[in-house]
Batch of 2 targets.
Target 1
Amino acid sequence: MAVRTRAPFVAGNWKMHLKLAEAAELARKIVEAGSGLQASTVVLIPPFTALATVGGAVAGSEVRLGAQDLYWEDQGAFTGEVSGPMLEDTGCSYVLVGHSERRQLFGETDETVARKARAALKAGLSPIVCVGEVLAERDGGRTLERIDDQLARGLGGFSREDMGRVVIAYEPVWAIGTGRTASPGQAEEVHAHIRRRLGESYGNEAASCAIILYGGSVKPANSYPLFQEKDIDGFLVGGASLDADGFVGIVREALRAYREEK
Ligand code: PEP
């Protein structure tokens, strides 16, 4: 079996949860529980209000900071929006783009995803671009077609170099916050497809280095078999990331599967 070179990558999307003191405490617990978990990338993604606080709590550790969204202009009369340079200035290295809640509740489209991903790269941030089908698309056998559309429109025009900084998160919408997880086989089918498409567009080397995360009701109990699939490089975690032990448990399980391959 080919040994994978991509180390586990686990990001926790805290969504619209936690006031400052709670956010600081959770970040501190994760740093403490996760210390010594080398060979993995761990990213905390709190709401905008807690970015600076969480940034302070993880300073000096291996844990990285990310934001949940950005606007594509650098500055201006865009009330309520936050730009890439502002996030970079706050200590972010990553930003989610096109999360299914943004697409479903706030009208985000593949076109806005492309603009935001480009703005993130311009600001020196790595976009974590989310793609995934809704249940009707899966049941109708249109999953891969939907993913192809999202990749073509959301990442269109990116160079090979850009792609080296983009993380992709496959999140079947029917699995987000529902307790229903894609089986390892279902997830791997889509991950392998995404990697194949990246190979066709950006070359085999870019495809084999690309980080492709799975998201959708990931917990410590289901993360090990998912990570055993060769194209699943880690997880975007929602609900379970609000519990330090659960979140670090997912990182540990991914690392266990990774090390067993070596
Ligand atoms: C998410 O918000 O990206 C997510 C995957 O949520 P959950 O883990 O709660 O399904």
Target 2
Amino acid sequence: MSMLDDVQRVLISEEELHTRIGAVAGEMNAVYSDEDFPILVCILKGAFMFLADLTRHLTFRHELDFMEISSYGKGTTSSGAVRILLDLAANIEGRHVVVVEDIVDTGHTLDYILRNFASRNPASVRVATLLNKPSRREVEVPVDYSGCEIPNEFVIGYGLDYAEQYRNLPFIGVLKPEVYEQEL
Ligand code: PRP
């Protein structure tokens, strides 16, 4: 069975993603400048593809760094418990920071990141996410730049995985429920 056979439907096409990412970059280009330029922190692994496309649309000077965060549960929902697998290389004290996420779902991961970053005394922290699922929120978190609001469906592709697979799909798709139901 090919990966594509596991996709129920395309939710956001490659072309639409390109448009949305251009819009997010446009908002950021209007805010940031080469003076006091920010550091973008890509939250691995899911945000790698968004970061790669976003950074190419940004016209202001910026640095990149990476942080890997994992929730403990490995199912289709996040358990709320979060840990750092890879920490920042950079010192963000006094720096403007943009957290780059693929999706904000319950908000637990982002809440943890924002609390953790606050203790490092950055000059500012803003959040850019490709996808936002507000209907699933359990913790209130600020989202400054959002590509698309999506319904409560299990999405994969463009960096997002199920069981570490499907990240390479160039679109955001809905996974067929039978693919993850047989694992539950
Ligand atoms: C995903 C996603 C966010 C988080 C959002 O990461 O990249 O970081 O879940 O969920 P939440 O709002 O409910 O906390 P995941 O833990 O699946 O790791 P991955 O990016 O390496 O796939």
